Amino acid sequence: MATPFVPKQALNFHGALLQELQGNVSDTIAQSLLRELPTLTSTSVVHDNGCSYGAVTLAILALDPPPVGAQVYATDVNPMFQAQLKAELAKISSPPVKVEVDTMDACNLSFPDAAFDLSITSFVFAGLADDVAAAKHILRTLKPGGTGVIGVWKSMPWHVALENAHIKTRGTDEPMAPFLSKSWYGKERIEQVTTEAGWEDVQYIDKAAWLNLGTDLERWARIAWTFLATPVGGWTQRDEDRWDEAISSISHELAQSDMHKFEDGIHKIRMVADIAVVRKK
């Protein structure tokens, strides 16, 4: 079998680059959100569902005061994310909260009923194969009186910049890169999904945060284009030939966005999340 073509400018994927791509925006949202949810105690059992590199888990560990003795289950289907979280946890001596990292599909959780006091699923639903099933599992695994949270992105200026670079370098007739086509997941869809899953009296809140793009916009654009813009059918020679044009387009659009600011030598883009919150009856 022939090795798939990859542009020479593309980067080799690893967890540190993923974290550079995501910046600290998910961490900021998680930290802010935890301040508004019921206070965690020593007996709390928490599910960080679709944990990625563990923004929610790490935010819990950073609480002041921490819920000493609480239990966090961090699950994801991607072993690279799990490895990244485990590496972060290894840096913490005597963590106040017990954390267990495991492989699990958010659409098919194997936890028993009524397992958690709090379940947070941050920025995962756009990529799920069965979002209704995932919402049902969240509700099923909550204890009566427990809190379930789903976060989706409402505003992602970087996403628009990548879509426009796709159109500019590949044309309007080529299907949008799969990740980009799946990333939009509006509040209307969350409302529909949670209703079908049996959630009642759902509350909605907005959370805004600044995505740190680093000191070099073109570097961030290169990471984003490498990992988020692989076209349907895979990369082609055209993508290598027009790579610089795509990176320049993304960088320029981000710099000109009303949601962009340059602060203390760092480029930042403002993102807004829609957060659905339910208290299980």
Automatic annotation (TrEMBL):
In this chain the Methyltransferase type domain maps to: 48-149
A GO biological process of this protein is: methylation
The molecular function GO annotations come to: S-adenosylmethionine-dependent methyltransferase activity
Alphabetically list the UniProt keywords.
Methyltransferase, Transferase
What is the superkingdom listed in this entry's lineage?
Eukaryota
Q: Which SUPFAM superfamilies does UniProt cross-reference here?
A: S-adenosyl-L-methionine-dependent methyltransferases (SSF53335)
Q: Does the keyword Translocase apply?
A: no
- What name goes with this protein? S-adenosyl-L-methionine-dependent methyltransferase
The species is: Periconia macrospinosa
